[in-house]
Amino acid sequence: MATDLYLGLDIGGTKMAVGIADAQGRLAADAAEPTDPAWRPGDVVEALHRMSQGVCGEAGVEMQDLRAVGISYGGPVDYAAGVTVTCHHLEGWENVPLVRLVEERFGLPAAMDNDANAAALAEAVFGAGKGHTHLLYLTVSSGIGGGIIIDGEIYRGATSMAGEIGHTTVKPDGPVCTCGRRGCLEALASGWSIARRATEKAREWPGESALKGEGEITAQAVARAADGGDALALEIMRETADYLAFGIGAGVNLLNPTLVVLGGGVSQAGAVLFDPLREALGKYALKENAAAVEVAPAALGAQVGVLGGVALALSVGAGRCGPGGE
After folding, report:
1. Which DSSP helix (H) or strand (E) runs through 189?
2. Considering the entire predicted model, what is its pTM?
3. Spelled out in words, what is the top-level CATH class assigned to the domain 5-122+302-317?
4. Taking phi first (over 0 means left), then psi (-120 to 50 degrees means alpha), and beta for anything else, what does residue 131 get?
5. Has domain 130-299 been given CATH number 3.30.420.40?
């Protein structure tokens, strides 16, 4: 029986997941369940423990056979203290010592980070970023988050708040963001902002468009229409790509990565997003930095949260902190 196995936990506002994988990120078993909004942290830990026992049984291992557990958490954390700061989707998660609670319940050493950092590390270790020790990760979905890998390790900043590229100001007089400020990248290029812009433009669009026949326009509908050559949808996707290129360009100039990885639902739009994004990046990044960087879609899909937990578990279970670790 293999003993080099790690447990990944993914705690989100609507879903929680667990998985067991080896040091190469090969999943032996995984499971997911909806997150009950009425649950408090202790309830969530108990549910994750129950789910973990289930995947241990499926993988044919005992909990004590695992090396460590890593937690991808859907909100800001104090990494050094192992404490959650808050959660934007669930109540009762202010200043929760989640690492300690998990270590006590699971009997394993644990590590935790926010979901964007965990996803960045997962893509660096197991996914699109393999072979890159300097990369910038963005998750573009209902919001926009980011993670930074420098010299093979997560860069967290002084208070674990580095990587908040979604709140880069792109248009100072732009729409109000969820953070309360105006013109953030998230307010211009996230899923909800794509839907908002499409709804506004469809009212005044002079030509035919598949989006005019939509009830509630979604970012997915815009991407589908753009893929089919719809002129209005293509304009919205080009505009989205330009906003993303502006924010990414600032990150590329600051960090000089060799790779930018885009994850999240919006990134699944494919060529209608990535082609204009790559082209526009040259407008906003120094030519030397633009020449040095690739832009690629994330590779891990829906498993990125669990594998982010596994990547974090490697740091405590095998002395490895990222793709440059031993």
Report:
1. helix 185-189
2. 0.91
3. alpha beta
4. left
5. yes
